[in-house]
Design a protein that fits this description.
By secondary structure, the chain is of the alpha+beta class. The protein has one domain (25-209). The chain contains three helices and 13 strands; from the N terminus they run H-E-H-E-E-H-E-E-E-E-E-E-E-E-E-E. It has helices spanning 2-21, 30-47, 89-93; strands at residues 26-27, 63-71, 73-83, 100-108, 110-114, 117-118, 125-129, 133-145, 148-154, 162-168, 177-185, 190-197, 201-209. Strands 1, 2, 3, 4, 5, 6, 7, 8, 9, 10, 11, 12 and 13 form a 13-stranded antiparallel beta sheet that branches.
Length: 212
């Protein structure tokens, strides 16, 4: 009995250690987002005047998440999303093979991943603030073919960096472009980024640590 109790106690301690080690993303405070989003829109419009996807970003619906990894030094990684002003579930439903703008992402110390390789600076559109803060920018579009919908993510040029199938998944329709960060690997500084559109569709892509 004593031995069994000791084994159970060790198991509980180990489980608690795993729980403490798990990295949980946190929402970026709404008041900060509301101050930050219009500035981002201005920077993108000024510094990236001819984007591959013409998104009419809605600053009022902006949101973001961040998380901290600690490998020697602590580092904050994050994503901010702004939907196109016309984004709804119907927007996604009506998308054609020509593509429909749905939103824009700005990343902090992150970039998209193609298979196992993170996209580097030569493939990225970048918004820069006072030569100090550099933010990779990604433009989102949906293409439709029959019943299939695909999320196309662009950055610097007219060739999509990532094409990811969209699946129907009900979520909050009041949040036209939503994010979820999961499966954070602190050692490799990688994570899954789930993008929800119009409260009706979602797709998951991979992001990884990257500093310009």
């Amino acid at each position: 009995m004593r031995k069994t109790f000791l084994c159970l106690s060790l198991a509980v301690v180990a489980a608690a250690g795993v729980a403490r080690a798990e990295i949980m993303p946190e929402p970026i405070p709404a008041d900060f987002i509301q101050q930050f989003a219009p500035l981002v829109i201005d920077l993108v419009q000024q510094q990236i005047p001819n984007p591959p996807v013409k998104v009419e970003a809605n600053a009022e619906k902006a949101l973001g998440y961040h998380f901290t990894v600690e490998q020697g030094e602590k580092e904050l990684l994050g994503v901010v999303a702004m939907p196109d002003k016309n984004l709804t579930a119907a927007t996604v439903e009506k998308a054609t093979d020509k593509g429909t703008p749905v939103g824009v992402l700005g990343m902090k110390s992150l970039s998209l991943v193609d298979k196992e390789d993170v996209f580097k600076a030569d493939r990225l559109a970048v918004a820069e603030l006072n030569g100090i803060f550099k933010m990779p920018v990604f433009f989102l579009s949906v293409k439709g073919s029959g019943a299939d919908r695909t999320l196309e993510i662009y950055s610097k040029d007219g060739k999509a960096l990532v094409s990811a199938p969209l699946k129907k998944q009900a979520s909050d329709a009041a949040v036209p472009l939503n994010l979820k960060i999961s499966n954070i690997d602190a050692a490799k500084k990688k994570a899954d980024l789930t993008i929800s559109l119009g409260g009706a569709y979602e797709s998951t892509v991979k992001v990884s640590h990257f500093v310009l």
